[in-house]
Amino acid sequence: MIKLPMLTADQKLAEIKRLYFTTSRATIAEDFAKALDLLKSIATEEERERAAVFMDGLAEMRSDWNKKAKGRSQKAKGKR
Asked: Can you tell me the distance from the alpha carbon of 34 to that of 19, in angstroms, rounded to the nearest whole number?
């Protein structure tokens, strides 16, 4: 059986921050899901607020990249 370490709130915040700075168009969906799971596992509202700026940034990137992807597929359909 694999023993998983319990992460502290600071470690969870550091991982959310790392995901924010390393995510790409190709990994945003997976990275956002991981960050959301980490955020949900943080115990206090005060600790979650520290992660809010990174979560907002990830959500904005996801939204922007989804809009651009939809725009490209719409243009491709129009060229047929």
From this structure: 8
Q: Specify burial of residue 37 (Cβ count, 10 A radius: 0-12, 13-18, 19+).
A: exposed
In 1-80, DSSP assigns E strands to none
Query: Cα(66)–Cα(29) distance, rounded to whole angstroms?
Result: 10
pTM of the prediction? 0.79
Instruction: Answer yes or no: are the C-beta atoms of 28 and 58 closer than 8 Å.
Output: yes
- Going from N- to C-terminal start, the domains of the chain cover 9-78
| Nearest CA among 34, 63, 45, 65 for reference residue 14 | 34
Asked whether residue 80 carries a pLDDT value surpassing 50, the answer given is no
Please give the torsion angle defined by the CA atoms of residues 18, 23, 28 and 30, in that order, rounded to the nearest 10 degrees.
-50
Cβ atoms of residues 41 and 18 within 8 Å: no
